[in-house]
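Internal ticket #5521
Category: modeling
Description: The requester needs a full-assembly model to guide mutagenesis choices. All entity lines are attached below as received. Residue total reported by intake: 676.
Assigned to: D.W.
Attached entities:
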Amino acid sequence: MATPDTCYWGYLDREQPAVLDVEPGTTITIEAVTHHSGDAPDLLMDEGVTKIWDGIPESERSPGVHIMTGPINVRGAKPGDTLRVELLSMKPRMPYGSNCAANWGLFHQEFGKERITIYELVDMPSDGSFPTSARPMFGYDFKTLELYDIPGIVTPPDPAAREPFGRQVTVPVRPHLGLMGVAPEGERRSSIPPGVFGGNVDNWRFGPGATVHYPVFAEGAGFYVGDPHFAQGDGEMCGTAIEASLDVTLRLSLADDVSTTSPLLKTDTHWYTHGFGDDLDEAMKMAADQVLRLMVDRGGFTMDEAYSLASVAVDLGVTQVVDGTVGCHAGVALDLIG
Amino acid sequence: MATPDTCYWGYLDREQPAVLDVEPGTTITIEAVTHHSGDAPDLLMDEGVTKIWDGIPESERSPGVHIMTGPINVRGAKPGDTLRVELLSMKPRMPYGSNCAANWGLFHQEFGKERITIYELVDMPSDGSFPTSARPMFGYDFKTLELYDIPGIVTPPDPAAREPFGRQVTVPVRPHLGLMGVAPEGERRSSIPPGVFGGNVDNWRFGPGATVHYPVFAEGAGFYVGDPHFAQGDGEMCGTAIEASLDVTLRLSLADDVSTTSPLLKTDTHWYTHGFGDDLDEAMKMAADQVLRLMVDRGGFTMDEAYSLASVAVDLGVTQVVDGTVGCHAGVALDLIG
C-alpha cells in the first residue's frame, strides 16, 4: 500500500489527511519504504519505490528525510487515549539494505567524508521471511553531492567505485521500524527528531513480536510508519542503520489498560520506557523518570521501592545519538512488574 | 585475606605498599568487603568486617568511600603492559546486601531524603555459591547523619524503623566487583570516579566467567578489588547497587595478545570497551572510539568497515551515572571480531 498517494516525505503533521480509516483491533499489512533506496538503485529500487520517488516532488520532501506510509486513522481514538501497535510480523521487500556513514554521524569530523556500505541478507528462507544474518557486500565513498543532506538522492551504480568488503562477516538481523508513531501536537515538524509522539525513535527492539504504546494527541491518532531497518545497534553510531524496505503486519487498537506519556515498548521479556533530550544526560533522566512511574503505576510499588529496584535491576541504554534529539531507554523485566 | 593489614579505604595511590607479590598466572581467592556493611550491621558485619572497621581509623578513609583489598603486585608487570584478570568464581560472604538511595543518586533532589533497602539472597545453594535471585526485605529512611557522606557509617538496627518491603518480588543476581583495577598514574585520588585504570567502573558484567584487561601504569601493576555487588542495573540509578561482601577467585596474568588504553572486558559472548567523562555524551564518544579501535586492531577491519559495522551491530550502553565521572560501554560480539 506504499504509493505516492499513501506516502508523504520528510515531516510529521497532524493536518496530514488520513489515507485509511480502521476500526480498533484491525490487522493491516503496511509497506515501509526506505529513503536510502537510491544508494544502490539497482538493488534497492523496484517499480513501486520508483513510483514514490517520481510521484512526490522534491519540494514536498522537507524539512526531514524519511518516507512515511500513512497516516492511518483509528476510529474513536482521541487525545488522552493510548494507541497500541502490535508488530505481528515483518518481511524484507528486497534482500538488500544500505548503511550511510553520514555527516550527522558521531565521527563525521574525524572521517572527513561520507560512505555507503551495502548489506545483503544471508541464506534467505524460501517464504521470504527474515534470515538470522546479513553481510556487508561493498562500500563506496559518497560523492554524488557535496553532502548527503537532501532526501531521495539516487547514486547511479558505479562498479568501479564499489569496493568489496574486506572480510566475510555477518551481523545479526534485527528487523524493525526506526520511525513509527502518532500525529504530534503543534505545527508541521521535521521527521528527524523523535519525541513523546514517537517518530524517529530508532530503537531496534521495535520488531516482530513487540508491542508499542503511544499517547494520542489528535482525533484518530494519525498513525504512520517509516525508516525501516534490517539491523541497528544501540546508538546508531555512524548515522544510519541497515536501511531497507519492509512489509509489516501489525494490529492497531486502543489500550484501556495502559497509560503513557511517551512511547512505551513491551517485548517478550521487558517493558522499555523512552527518554529524549538535547543531550544524553537529559534523555537518560527522562527514561529513568518514566520507568519509575511505570513501576509505581503498573507494578504497584511505592516510589521508594521503585527507586531501589530500578537501581539494582533496571538497565539504562543509549537508543540513538544521531537524530539531533538523542534518546535513551530503560528496561524493566516483566517478571518484576507484570 | 581482607584484614586491616591487607585493606585500605577511600583512595587509589600508586605509592600504596603491596600486600602480596604473585607470579603471573597465579590464581588467588581474595575477599572484597562492602563499605555499606554498617547499613544493617546485624546482617552484614561479621568478626572480620568489624576488625577492618575498627582497624582502619576514620582519618585514613578518604577522600573516597570504598574499602579496597590489595594492592597485589604482579611480578614483572611494567608500564605499557596489559594486566589480565580472569574472574573465575564468586561466593557471597553473607547472604545479605544493602542498597542506598543516596545523596549522589539521580533523583535525590526529587526524593529529598536518603533511604536504605536491605536485600537477601533467595534459595541459597548448600555449597554457598550464588542463587539466581535476591529479594528486598525491608527499608528505612537514613537518619543516622544529616547525609550519607562519610565512609564506614554504622546504623544500629532499629526494628521500629525497618519497614517490610510491600510486595514479594525478586531481582536477578548479577554478582560482580564494582571496583577493580590497577594503580593509576599521578597522585593519590578518590576511589569514587572511575578511569582508564579501572577503579569504580561499576559494570555488572565484571562477574564470574568474565575477563578484564587493564593498561599497566606502575611497576607490578598494583591490582586491587573493592565495592562488591550482588546486583546492579546499567546506570546504578539511585546511587548504589546491592552492596554486599564477596569472596572472589581470580587469576592474574600479563596479556601479550591484548593491548588496551582503558578497561577492556571479555565475556562469553562479547568484548566491551569503556568510556568515561563528565557527562554521558563524552563517555559515550570515548566508548565508541575505543570499540572502533578494537575492531580495527583485533578484528582486522579498515576504519571505514568498523564504523559501518559498529552502527549496525554494536550496542552502546550506560554503565553508571552516579560516580561523578559517568560511564558508557560498547559491546561487540565475539562472532564479529573473534
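Resolution: model delivered.
Comment from assignee: Chain A touches chain B through 65 residues (CB under 8 Å).
Ticket closed.
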